[in-house]
# Entry
Amino acid sequence: MIETLPELATIVLQNGDEAPFLTDVGAAALAVGLASLAAGYAERGIGAAAVGAIAEDDDMFVPGIVMTVLPETLVIFAIVAIFLVQ
Amino acid sequence: MSVGASNPEYVNARVRSRRASLFADEDYRKLIRMGPSGIARFMEESEYEREINALGARFSGVDLIEYALNRNLAKHFKDLLDWSEGRLYDLIAQYLRKFDVWNLKTIIRGVYTDADPEAIQTDLIRAGDIDDRTLDRLVEVDSIEDAIDVLYGTIYYEPLSAAYKEYEETGALVPLENALDREFFEHLLDGFRRPNSYEPQEGPEAMYLEFLQAEIDFRNARNALRLARSGADLDPAEFYIEGGVLFDPGELSRLVADYDELVDHIAENKRYGDRLSVALDRLREADSLIQFEHAIDAALLEYSDRLSSIYPTSVSAVFSYILAKEREVENIRAIARGREVGLTESEIEDELVIL
# Structure
């Protein structure tokens, strides 16, 4: 299988003229998707800690929410990529 | 063994919040000036409200305080087990066996002195691994041998049966209690002893190991000093718990004779020396055994706090909370008992372990 890999890569790349393997918009979409995945992973831990803090002390509700959504900024930066390619 | 991912973030957030709401130095200063009923009232306005109210009708005075403290302690540690999952649960459950050891010691001592089952019952802290039914059966037994039989199937059965022979020969409880302590600590370290395991050098696991080693080291130091000061004709090596990094058995027997040398030995150790400079100064000033023990407790507490802040999601934070909570309960008990027998304020202050 490994021997056929270079061949596969050439075909994918040569195909660029009519229907490219990955368009600019497609790449931007991929960027947003991966960024969201990363943000979700980061929020997992923060959210768990925030819920723990809120369970002990109700006043932590607002700081807890603010902290939990902070990694969401990652996705906002990724969205910039969409405007760049359009 | 429980399965699934562990949730250190959640547990640590809750534990740190509870750690922050423990009594502060000023609270102790206030408590020292109160009588038992004042202390009970103060506790009713704090964390201990539910326990004081539940037990208030049945007990009064110092007994009320003591039972409320025990019950609150058990509640908090049960909570820890409720929250945690996966490997974190296993580690905490293993560590909470500490209270099994405490309960078994209490029961053995109770049976030895023919105490009333009811009286033993109230001194138990139901936070360990042994379930309530077994504990209830243990309290009712007539002889230590029966108690050991009830424990058949638990990890304590074998070491206790081995120690029982020695107990029969000497009539002293020391071998039994020693066997319990040793089983507890060595069981904790089992995970790092398996043939193909390695000793982690850094990361949360290493902190966990370091915490256990620190506790064993300080326990060894304390046992040794107790023996030396009481002048008992026992070999310190017999009480040695394996797994620490500070002493080996031979060293311990030698250092016990000379107090200053012992403190120097702790200070020279590269792990504890720099981190415990304040506590070590206090150790040097300590002139009685009680002060020394309190200084050791304070040192362990300080050390565990430090370990817990290195890796935010390690289990060390939970252990440092367990130690701190235990310390709080012991402090309040010391104040209440001290007031009851009429000690002066400065005498009670000597009994407290404050960082």
